[in-house]
Amino acid sequence: MKRFLLVCAILVLLGYLAFSAYYFRDNVQDKVCKNFVVVVKDSLDKQFIQTKDIETLLRKEKLHPVDKPLSEINTLEMEEAIRGNRLVKSVEVYATQDGSIVASIRQRNPVLRIMSHAEGSYYIDSERERMPISQNYTVYLPVATGNISEEYAKSELYDFVMFVTNSPTWDAWIEQIVVGPKQKVQIIPRAGDFRVTLGTLDNYEEKLDKLKLFIEKGLNTVGWNRYSEISLEYNNQVVCTMK
Q1: Can you name the residues that pair with 115 across neighbouring β-strands?
Q2: Strand, coil or helix: 172
Q3: Which residue of 29, 145, 182, 231 has the fewest CB atoms within a 10 Å radius of its CB?
Q4: CB-CB neighbours of 166 under 10 Å
Q5: 111 near 125, Cβ under 8 Å?
Q6: Neighbours of 218 (CB within 10 A)
Q7: DSSP letters spanning 100-119
Q8: Which pLDDT score, from 0 to 100, does residue 36 have?
Q9: CA angle at residue 146 from 148 to 165, to 5 degrees?
Q10: What's the half-sphere exposure (Cβ side, CA atoms, 13 Å) at 4?
Q11: Beta partners for 227?
Q12: How far is CA 130 from the centre of its chain?
């Protein structure tokens, strides 16, 4: 008897859910869209994307939903169009019960700004992908300048910057990264009028350990303005150039 009642309860519940889904679908499809809402879920962290940008994009593609019957609105096409904005990481477009269309968006997360002599200015995001500079919002990030290819920015340079960013000491100490010919890297500190030459980024952790020791035992003793360049290119050596 208990099993029979349980089965009946389940059937009733399933019937209610099916009726509700059918009723909601028909009720919504008969409506005309009067409101389009853009929700940028991570807008408290960064503000690359604004509602006006999404609305302009959809109008250009003739996909803006306002004043269209919901039955004629293709949310999948809207999602595809919005993904054309390279600042967008993900998007979901859906209708609400009151007849509104909502675009729920997450933005891409830049971790490094590149200012390349050959390829211009752009970001590299947390997934190692190139990301355009936003006209709406500027984010404070490590900056790398010089002879930088996109491939190099996504690989060796990305790994180095992530190491620096995750180190409170080096993140606070390094102001800029300069890449010269043959991927010879220099770093410019926030304090002191000199440059530190790493050479290539091979064994950069060991080179930074050597620099840390030199700062503690050398620069803090003789002063920060004595040298124009500190080179860490060579094994077991710190080569300094006097001003």
Answers
A1: 121, 145
A2: helix
A3: 182
A4: 9
A5: yes
A6: 16
A7: -EEEEEEE--EEEEEEETTT
A8: 96
A9: 75
A10: 1
A11: 242
A12: 9
State the amino acid at position 131 in one-letter form: M
Provide the token pair at 48: 């690359």
* Sequence-ordered strand ranges (E) for the chain: 36-40, 88-95, 101-107, 110-116, 120-125, 130-131, 143-146, 174-179, 185-189, 195-199, 227-231, 239-242
Q: What's the DSSP call for residue 188?
A: E
What would you measure as the largest C-alpha separation in the chain, in angstroms?
95
Q: Both tokens of residue 183?
A: 């991927």
Residue 70 per-residue DSSP state? G
Q: How many CB atoms are located within 10 Å of the residue 56 CB? A: 12
Q: How far apart are CA 53 and CA 49, in angstroms?
A: 7
Mean pLDDT for back-to-back runs of 10 residues, the chain (243 residues): 53 51 52 93 84 95 95 95 95 92 95 94 96 88 95 97 94 94 93 88 93 80 75 83 78
Number of residues assigned to the chain: 243
- The backbone torsions φ and ψ at residue 186, rounded to the nearest 5 degrees and listed phi first, read -120, 150
| Helix, strand, coil percentages in the chain from 3-state DSSP, rounded to 5 | 40, 25, 35
Count of C-beta atoms within a 10 Å radius of residue 240: 15
